[in-house]
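Explain this record to help learners:
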Amino acid sequence: MDGLRGLTADDPPWIGDYRLLSRLGSGGMGRVYLARSEGGRTVAVKLVKAELAAEEEFRDRFRAEVAAARRVGGRWTAPVLDADTEADVPWVATGYIAGPTLSQVVGSYVRQGDYGPLPEDSLRRLAYGLACALRDIHGVGLVHRDLKPSNVLLTIDGPRVIDFGIARALDAVGEQTQTRAGTVVGSPSFMSPEQVQGHRVGPASDVFCVGSVLAYAATGRQPFGNPASGVHAVMFKIAREEPDLAAAPDGIRGLILDCLAKDPAARPTPEQLAERLGPAPGGRSAAPWLPAELIARLGQHAVLLLDTDTPPGGHPPTMVTTKVTPTPAVPPPPTATERRRRRRWLPVIATAVFAAATAAAAVPLLSEGAGAEDSASDIPAGYIGTWSGPVLRDGEPTGQQRRFVITHGKVGEVVANSTSLGATYECRSDAKLVSVTRQDGHPALRLDTTVVRSVPAGRCAALGEHTLEEGAAGTLTWAAAGRTATLHRVAPAAGTVPEGFLGTWRRPNDDGYGTQQLTVKQAPAGSTVLTAVVMGRGGRCTAHAALYAAEGGKLTVGPSVVDRAAPGCAPSSTSVLSLGPDGTLHREFLGDDRQPRGYSRVK
């Protein structure tokens, strides 16, 4: 099936009560799968990354956003059908939308001469649908923050807005959650001036993004330039310059310009946009809003859904349910009930085919559902994996470490997660692929990073363009902002805490009053493995630290984050844990804030 990937050994065959059929895509939050419910409904299931699930702050936000998204409704968005926010690995299931993304429709024209910019009637229906979607989203206290062509699906009866993966609850947006310098949320070509300047983002930011999306749909070009020619140049144009709308139809150009006003207060609200465009025609008698060849492909795509009833390419050895419980991988043959349920799909599919029968064009359709990636990857196979190494500046060691986790993906997608670890800070970034070039006959990756986590808060800033290229003896060479590193492939064991460290350890406070207690648990690199609880004269202090690496019989954990502070409670620097021959646990701090400490195991 075009645009879908078969399951691999890394994919579970079940999540909750949903049988997985194919992988739709992956991104900063996790993986998205095409799945089918026990009642026969096709759904998209997003499985959160394990390292994010271990972060209580993320889990709290995920709960709030799922609860809000349930209230949005499904007329102009993908409805939330089910979720388990308390599972070891949280997930959410939404209705699967059988249609291409706007980026695929317009992008296929740019690449191959197929489809192309939408006609004016289609643009007006698109604008009306986007306005109604934002009205529903904002009405339950959400701001989308990443409205772009790949998050807009085109269906027979109108557009749908998907992927609230980086949405934020409006009531949680305050001084403490404003975007900091160097921390930008969104996709460069489709951000608002507020986003690129690091200001507070509200509902009006989504309206600006509507203008950019409509400009792209009307002209086939990004209105402020392509990030391949320089992300920061695009961001400057968004903040300071006027968009390129020369090719936009006259009847829609004024509306686009109003949405693209630099001043948020000057932009129309979604309600005003919908009223200005008038109600969209509905019902079975309404004329098609898309070109005939697209309508034809929608019907053909619906038929192809039947072929995904059995996951292609075999089954993984275990399955993941709500609580990650292994069970036999190969499902039993379908029961009579299941066979009848499949037959109930046939009238629905036949209707879709009949609606498309008058159009003959057959252009390949890549379907994202809730964020699918293209079937091919731009990342060379030799780059895939985890890499780490010490950082140099002007040839001298800085004491910092840099780690990249590289996955498959296309230009413009997040293909890597990067961690920079210093003695007193830890910075995590998502890296989008800008281009793949060749250096001295070898492929080289150009990446643009966005800071997604800073410890301590406000410490981290993006370094600009990063490059990764093949080095000697199976290494990768990294460079950014005058810094370099020779990265070595990290063995899977480096992300696993040895059993001897697991458990609870304790020592008395230096003043003889109270205790310091460490609890070490099993979790992957990047997740919280260490919880410190200090009981002293000032009260109770609780802090957490994430695993960077487990190598050479030692654990390296990042600086701690205090989540329950007492007077005098302060976070600690990056530290290294080791086991002594007498069965004690030793902790050495890389900053100058603490003396080495020893702990005894709690029986």
